[in-house]
Amino acid sequence: MIEFHHVWKQYQKPHWALSDVSLEIRRGEFCFITGPSGSGKTTLLKLIFRELFPTEGQILIDGVNTLKIPEHRIYKLRRKMGIVFQDFRLLFHRTVIENVALPLRILGLADKEIRRRVFNALRQVNLHHKMWDFPQRLSYGEQQRVAIARAIVHQPTIILADEPTGNLDPELAFEIMSIFKEINQQGATVVIGSHDRELIRHFGDKIYFLQKGKLIGKEERR
Amino acid sequence: MIFRQIWFLLKTAVDNLWSFRSRNFISVLIISFSFLVIGIFLSLSNNLLYMGQQLSNNLAISFFLEPGIKTADLENIKSEILASGLVEQITFVSSEDALSRFRSNFPELKEILDNLQSNPFPPSFEVRLKNNLQNLPATLYFMERIRRLKGVIDVQFNQEWVEKMESLSRIVRAVGFFLGSILILASFFIISNVVRLNVFARKNEIEILRLVGATNTFIRIPFLVEGFVLGLLGSLVSLLILALLIKIFPIYIGSTLGAARELFTLKPLTMKQSLWLVVGGIFTGILGSGSSVSRFLRI
User: Fold this and answer.
1) Could you report the per-residue pLDDT of B4-36, keeping only the tens digit for each?
2) Please, which of A35, A153, B171, B189 could form a disulfide with A210 given CB 3.0 to 4.6 Å?
3) Nearest-10 Cα torsion for A79, A85, A88, A91
4) Interchain pair A103, B212: CB under 8 A
């Protein structure tokens, strides 16, 4: 489903953020990308949803070379994905329900259907009682769950999450990871960038280890 | 589905205008002050134009005719004058009319007139020209042609004054064009930057929309609608302030400027000018907004 073929990424010479990374994530896998800070986890995730272009190499999603998708068609790729950003990227002047409904508004669904799906997504992250609140009134963990609800509401086939449990206490981190596992069991492919060894050990089916931009190992548990 | 999306985008634009109301309020004020400067300039040039027209209304030529001119010659001269296309109004002044006009204008000379044996005033055609100062060569040619007609004995026309008016009007037009172009460019620059700053403050929102799969059109439309509304409101507010200024200004300057007062009077904008100002506001708002969003839509 997601294939990297000899991918290199350089922001600034002479350092390489990613060096010759090749990997494959199959449909329905629960995959972790791990490594210390600055190892290239975020870069790798950003390359998947084409927020970045690789300096060299090819990236295929569902057999389509993402580099060849024209700029005005990139939305088609992103609609297949649900992305949870490290900084959540919520709209602070919109309520929780409006934030979560955004991907569905973009798809042009009917109001009734939007309400039904948003409520289900918020119930899944256990935040349906705060749907009319504005994000700034929510705690850090709650904001994170809004971001997750927004990422799953349109039932994407790929979920990407960058450090979704960073700065959360272990109990909450475990709860959030369980939500991802549940979504994965419903059929979505989940790719998570994290350096939390405990969570990786507990949840990961497939783990890729990065260090200084190089893929130094892979572990499969299925 | 399309209507649903359009409805959502319009609603989003209105929500955004309200959510960022303080920032939008300042944008509207800046836009309106920029347009106010253009409006004041237009208003002053309207006044200059009006003064020019008033002056050129006085442009008249008198064709003096032979005393006892034959009716056929008279008719011929009249039809030649009318055929030129330069004439706004033509009046025949008979010798008697000229004498009585002189009497009423100079009552102190009554005795001299009473002692005259015959009427010394020749009949004449008084011709008022159209407001067309650019047409001096044509006017001179027209005068010369009429002067040569049978029955015309003299022509009276202040050529020097016309030439001065013509050069003054040319200077006013050139300065107006120069200042007007600078003002319009400067205002366009200010307004598009205000709208751009507005968009820049929301680049995070644009990024989020892109990453959740919105098309460029979907992202652009609310910003264009917001640009449209800001431009429209800005230009309308400027027209409102200008209308107030036109009302208040004469009271404020009072009689302090004396004779120069006429020169600094603000004349209301014409309907066409007001419409252009509003169209300019809308255009600048949409263009500023659209170009700024496009910058963030490129990866």
Assistant:
1) 888 888 888 888 888 888 888 888 888 888 888
2) A35
3) -40
4) yes
